[in-house]
Amino acid sequence: MERLPFPSIVAASTNDPLARFTRTIGLARAWGSKLVRLGNVGHMNPASGFGPWHDAHTFIRQLTRPVREQA
């Protein structure tokens, strides 16, 4: 439950059966992560029907932007 030493994003479902959304909010705060609320999408994994996830590319660009700007 400590701040992460790098930028991070927690993309969270509001109805994930494995993690209550209130718990996820607390984790994101403790880690210093940006929280992205995805809505009622259940647990996000291939077994739940998640295939390619194009929004992930947006999140990766957001996380790598500061690194590219420092280089």
Fold and architecture overview:
With 71 residues, the chain is α+β, with helices and mostly antiparallel strands. The chain has two helices and two strands. It has helices at residues 21-31, 55-70, and strands at 9-13, 34-39.
Which structural category fits the helices and strands? alpha+beta
Strand order of the largest sheet: 1-2
Average pLDDT taken over every residue: 87
Low-pLDDT parts are: none
Report the portion of residues in β strands: 15-25%
Tell me the number of strands.
2
Q: Give the N-to-C terminal Cα separation.
A: 30 Å
> What is the succession of H and E elements?
EHEH
Helix content: 25-40%
Concise structural overview:
38% of the residues lie in helices and 15% in strands. It is built from 2 helices and 2 strands; from the N terminus they run βαβα.
Secondary structure topology:
Blueprint: E1 9-13, H1 21-31, E2 34-39, H2 55-70
Parallel strand pairs: 1-2
List keywords for this structure.
alpha+beta, 15% strand, two-stranded parallel sheet, 71 residues
